[in-house]
Write a structure and sequence with these properties.
By secondary structure, the protein is α/β, with parallel strands linked by helices. The chain has one domain: Luciferase-like domain (TIM Barrel). Helices cover 43% and strands 23% of the residues. The protein has 4 helices and 6 strands. Strands 1, 2, 3, 4, 5 and 6 form a 6-stranded mixed β-sheet that branches. Helix 3 crosses helix 4.
Length: 150
Amino acid sequence: MAHLRIAPTGPLRIGVVLGDRVWLDTPGDVVRVRAADLRGVTQKAAALREERPNVHALVDIDVMIARDAHSARAAMAAAPPTDGTTLLYVGTPVGLAGLIADIHALGIADGAVLIPLTRDGVMDLIRDEVLPEVRTMVSLHTETTACRTA
């Protein structure tokens, strides 16, 4: 069994699928990791890091978000079904930001590639709410960790 790191390996990386392209917040060597659950993501990212230690592992997350969880669930019910091979997040922008920050803080992956399941306002919420919130969460975690270890 591969040794699993439980600390961030570097700065958080974020990507967003835009049609047939992927926007990444910073350039660099990244590999997207797909699995239906966090256990699978952890195992695949650990194997990737073992094989290619200088690459950044980014977890794919299918995303359905809205200003409130009820609206997100209703939109998901109306959306075409997913194939079940990718993490799925249905909820609020703050909840999604928390998931991404946790994945990074626990060292599961170096970040995430968000795959909006609809374009109806989801891209705006990612840009206007998720990205700023996740940056704040990761920044606060880094500052808190630095204070505890100093």
